[in-house]
Amino acid sequence: MSDKATILLVDDTRTNIELLAGCLQKTYNLKVAMNGKRCLELAESEPVPDLILLDVIMPDMDGYDVCRQLKDNSSTKDIPIMFVTGKDSDEDEELGLQLGAVDYITKPIRPAIVTARVGTQVILKQQSDTLRSMALHDQLTSLFNRHYLIEAANSKVARIKRHGGTLSLMMIDIDYFKLVNDKFGHQAGDTVLRAVASVLSSGSRKEDVVARFGGEEFVVLLDDCSILDADDKAEQLRSLIEQLIPEGISVTASFGIAELDPDGETFEHLLARADQAVYLAKEQGRNCVVQAKSELDIKED
Ligand SMILES: Nc1nc2c(ncn2[C@@H]2O[C@H](COP(=O)(O)OP(=O)(O)OP(=O)(O)O)[C@@H](O)[C@H]2O)c(=O)[nH]1
């Protein structure tokens, strides 16, 4: 994978593509589409573009329509679009900008102007990616933070209520972590947190969300996973953490697991059930996995 930003060039005329590529190919990784349909495909495929240079007048689907579709799709809506077009009236430019384009350049293509304006947009995109990543991740462990977890969980729960499916949640709390800090110091405590985080993320699937929920507490959201599968997974992770011994420090963790009841349960409630299961795991001597009580059992208690 290159560190270069990726730019998608969209134009139905080969000479325009060649001219743009001539300005940009040394600095950027380029993808090329010669019609709107191909642009929509390439915008969603890896490497996802950091910027799209979009012609307006094209057969089948014009650039304004392509722009509308990109902005309507949650996976492409944040890709900046710069129109590069022969349509040079004020109304055209106004429309392009109203549709959400970050810039509007008129043809004939002037290489120095294109290069400078593309450079500015790529820097802005990289800065906004960095800020977004910082807002969603925990600095110490690089896992997702509580804010992202709640956002992701609420959309997963909403999807399951609409389309069906299973979702399990695992809450993990390191045992006697205060003692680790007290005995070995805060820096060693931080090393332990990073080591546990690394076990949790390398032991999870790409679509799972692994988050640091608080101080020494983590949450893993398991897509398409029943409580029985979550139990197996938790047992594997519990055992891996026990074998870790980072910097010679013995560490164990207590696990609470719960499966979403799609009949009306909210994420907050699922979380509360898993939290209660962690509490029971602590009571049962720690370093173990406890399944949360079902809604029914809670009502009967
Ligand atoms: N090193 C380090 N420690 C942290 C961090 N965040 C929270 N802690 C510490 O985590 C400890 C949590 O302690 P407790 O909540 O008493 O829990 P515990 O000692 O793990 O006990 P049990 O959960 O009952 O097994 C506190 O001492 C916090 O100061 C952090 O980012 N780094």
**How far is the first residue's CA from the last residue's CA?**
55 Å
Helical fraction: 40-55%
Largest sheet, in brief, is: 5 strands, parallel
In the sheet with the most strands, the strands line up as 2-1-3-4-5
CATH superfamily of the largest domain: Reverse transcriptase/Diguanylate cyclase domain
In round numbers, the mean pLDDT is: 94
Query: What is the helix/strand order?
Result: EHEHEHEHEHHEHHEEHEHEH
GO molecular function, one term: diguanylate cyclase activity
EC number: 2.7.7.65
Domain GGDEF: 165-294
Cofactor: Mg(2+)
Descriptive tags:
301 residues, alpha/beta, Rossmann fold, Alpha-Beta Plaits, 2 domains, five-stranded parallel beta sheet, five-stranded mixed beta sheet, 10 strands, 50% helix, binds guanosine-5'-triphosphate, diguanylate cyclase activity, EC 2.7.7.65, phosphoprotein, Sig_transdc_resp-reg_receiver, Nucleotide_cyclase
